Each structure stands twice: as C-alpha cells, then as structure tokens.
C-alpha cells in the first residue's frame, strides 16, 4: 500500500448479520456439571473478521435460561440490553437490567445472567480480546 492510500474493504469479512447466520447454543459446563444456557451469534472476532482488539456477539437468553456465573482474568466485557429484563449478577450484587442498559464488566469481576421472565432477552456482548479469553467458572 502506498503512502496516502486506504485499505480496501472486504465486506464478506467485515459485515455479518445475526439474522442470516443464526445462533449457536452455549457449550460450557459448570462446576457441578450444569449446562451454561443461552444462544450466541458471533458478529466480530479474530477468526470471522480479522479483529485484533475485540469480539462482539449477539446473545439471546430464553425464558428460564441461566448464563452461569464466571469471570475473565484477562479481558473486560460489556452487555447492551436490547430487549427483555434479565437479572444480571455483578460481583455480589444482582441487578434487574432493562432495554437500553449498557453494563460494563471489568476483568476479573464475577458475572452471569438469569432470565426469570417470560420474554426472551437479547443483548449485544463485547469482549476486549478478539479470541481466546479465559473463562473461569464460579458455579
């Protein structure tokens, strides 16, 4: 690339749509053998987009599902609640989230979510590493 030139956009790597690619079930198992619950559709990552600094996904927690409490010693995370009102665990606190909430989760902070309502929860989830962050179960 010469001085002053701009990189070209590879739209097939840079743009991904949750409605086109769908969701995958979470596949982790907790400390007592319980299954981590919820659905995820990765939209930006190292492998998918070539990102070197973050990972962004669309998460969905169906009624009655629980995303087990855990922490990441090497990455911070955020949730932006799009719909629904999950109970979000942050350290020793529980917070009833609502659409429009932006929730910051510093690295090392215990967190998880429970959908104890009759409505699906949709959230945008971001992690400060593009891949390979550590996931440490706390339940």
UniProtKB/TrEMBL annotation:
<dbReference type="Pfam" id="PF07883">
    <property type="entry name" value="Cupin_2"/>
</dbReference>
<dbReference type="GO" id="GO:0046872">
    <property type="term" value="F:metal ion binding"/>
</dbReference>
<protein>
    <recommendedName>
        <fullName>Cupin type-2 domain-containing protein</fullName>
    </recommendedName>
</protein>
<keyword id="KW-0479">Metal-binding</keyword>
<feature type="domain" description="Cupin type-2">
    <location>
        <begin position="60"/>
        <end position="125"/>
    </location>
</feature>
<dbReference type="InterPro" id="IPR014710">
    <property type="entry name" value="RmlC-like_jellyroll"/>
</dbReference>
<dbReference type="InterPro" id="IPR011051">
    <property type="entry name" value="RmlC_Cupin_sf"/>
</dbReference>
<dbReference type="InterPro" id="IPR013096">
    <property type="entry name" value="Cupin_2"/>
</dbReference>
<dbReference type="InterPro" id="IPR051610">
    <property type="entry name" value="GPI/OXD"/>
</dbReference>
């Amino acid at each position: 690339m010469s001085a002053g030139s701009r990189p070209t956009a590879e739209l097939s790597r840079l743009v991904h749509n949750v409605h086109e690619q769908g969701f995958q079930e979470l596949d982790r198992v907790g400390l007592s053998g319980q299954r981590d619950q919820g659905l995820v559709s990765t939209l930006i990552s190292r492998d998918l987009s070539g990102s070197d600094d973050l990972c962004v996904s669309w998460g969905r927690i169906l009624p009655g599902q629980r995303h087990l409490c855990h922490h990441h010693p090497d990455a911070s995370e955020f949730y932006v609640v799009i719909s629904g009102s999950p109970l979000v665990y942050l350290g020793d606190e529980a917070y009833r989230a609502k659409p429009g909430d932006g929730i910051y989760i510093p690295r090392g902070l215990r967190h998880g979510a429970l959908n104890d309502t009759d409505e699906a929860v949709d959230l945008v989830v971001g992690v400060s590493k593009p891949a390979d962050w550590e996931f440490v179960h706390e339940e």
